Amino acid sequence: MSDSLLQSTVSRLEHHTSVARSPRARCTIVWPRELSAAVELDDRPIVLGRAGDVSLAHKTVSRAHAKLQWDPARGAHALEDLGSHNGTSVNRRRISSPIALASADVLRLGDVLAVYERVDHPTVSSTNVDEVFGRAAVLDGLRASIESASRDLAPTLILGETGTGKERVAQAIHRLSARPGRLVAVNCAALSPQLFESQLFGHVKGAFTGAGEAREGLFRAADHGTLLLDEIGDLALELQPKLLRAIEARESLAVGATRPVSVSVKVVAATHRDLRAAVLAGTFRADLYGRLSGRELRVPSLRERAVDVLDWLDRFAHGARVELRADDAEALVCARWSLNLRAVDRLARELGERREGETSARALPAWLEDEIDPQNQMEPDSSDTAARPAPDRAEFLAAYEAHGGSVRALAKHFGRDRRQIYRWVDAYGLRASR
């Protein structure tokens, strides 16, 4: 936030009242970058504009452009356009009447972009978790949970979509734990059923054909350190009891050995799958889930961290800031980002190869079309109707068959974001169509 904008914002807000109030939400300006600012919102009405309570010094913004006001009936802020010259949009849709906002909604006032975030449980953001980059409000709680998990030897389960940075979280837990051992990572989806015990627990020389020398295995390699069981949701069902026993007993029995060896290992498991749904579906053991989920951390998707999208694009561009027009920036901040940070990394590399500096909508890669298709985003709901409750397995499968696996149709049917439909489809081992 620039010093002048910060001072203007603070002085105008202090004019309303000198009594401190707990924030209910945060509004962060993300584009143009020189106007970058974060304003905490409570139950007081706030006018946004060149002469508003929050000053937006941009030629496309009217003096009193829009108003944010807490709506206690909906438990959210409502955004209202105040007859601005260039209009106000939410998630790329122009608004003509007050609309209730949801967390991570993208607001556009003229050519200024901002992201609205709920702050339901205010926490002090840790400055010690360097591995978790971003200023999104949802990351504050994640950083606090990482610090707490690092002080506990009990297993930690990290949940999150593909590409959200689960391995970074595991690295942070290990570093902050100050354990003298190594961080050892294993992809559970790649573990061989035939060699599972040897890979995890090691073997003695001559234990089986080809065992020409003894090996310690991953558990012993991680002794006094951290063992990351990545993609734990893909571990074969028949292998899960063996893993559970090792975690509970805190010992490793090498293949061919007669006595187990005690190990002090912090077990961190990570998956993009819904393990609760997998337990109900019979593809993951309830006792193993119970053991791993003593501490459960969820890494939010990039869509939930929309405020960080352009910052990540710059970060992946290795300091070479990618210049965008307002329409392009809006499309990217509103995108679905189904592969999260991996997709942003790919975009940064492709833009860097095509042209240095400025880009345009015509220059964006074709594979981004589905990510920025406005039909992929849920229509902002200005009614008081709440989303339908989560369906059970039978209800979801019936709807899946009725709509031919169409994620778009299922999202409309259940009144949910397409990302949630993808999670349910994935959890039940189904195949989605657009």
Structural description of this entry:
It is a single chain. The protein is of the alpha/beta class and 434 residues long. It has four domains: 3-118, Tumour Suppressor Smad4; 138-298, Rossmann fold (3-Layer(aba) Sandwich); 307-366, Orthogonal Bundle (Helicase, Ruva Protein, domain 3), CATH 1.10.8; 393-427, no CATH class. 32% of the residues lie in helices and 18% in strands. The chain contains 15 helices and 18 strands. The strands form four sheets. A six-stranded antiparallel sheet has the order 2-1-11-10-7-8. The protein has a five-stranded mixed sheet with strand order 4-3-5-6-9. Strand 15 and strand 16 (261-262) form a beta hairpin. The longest helix has 14 residues, at 3-16. The protein starts with a helix and ends in a 7-residue tail after the last helix. The relative contact order is 0.11. The model is unreliable at 1-20, 357-362 and 374-387 (pLDDT under 50).
